[in-house]
Task: inverse folding
């Protein structure tokens, strides 16, 4: 079955960096677009970044220039490098696979806390 397992979250000071990873199993990874979404306490789900099957990246405006998405099809893994982190980036970050116009399975997520 499809599994998406995120890792790399934690507590970081403002201005710091984290690298999130999402290991995928149960499907042909290279055939799916992938994205990162986040949910802050008391708020709805927000997309952060997505990457096409060909490796083209797309970013939500608030993270442009600070976050970098990438994928390694040989390792069935998608990454999110997060730099210059702000307290507003505090959230549970999850990865999700997509096909065509639909977004499908999502992982359980990893907690990111940005605080001094």
Result:
């Amino acid at each position: 079955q499809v599994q998406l397992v995120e890792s790399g979250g934690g507590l970081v000071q403002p201005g710091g960096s984290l690298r999130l990873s999402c290991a995928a199993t149960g499907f042909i990874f290279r055939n799916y677009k992938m994205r990162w979404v986040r949910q802050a306490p008391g708020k709805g789900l927000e997309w952060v970044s997505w990457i096409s099957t060909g490796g083209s990246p797309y970013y939500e405006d608030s993270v442009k220039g600070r976050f970098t998405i990438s994928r390694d099809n040989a390792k069935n893994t998608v990454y999110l490098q997060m730099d210059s982190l702000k307290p507003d980036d505090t959230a549970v970050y999850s990865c999700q696979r997509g096909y065509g116009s639909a977004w499908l399975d999502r992982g359980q997520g990893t907690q990111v806390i940005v605080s001094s």
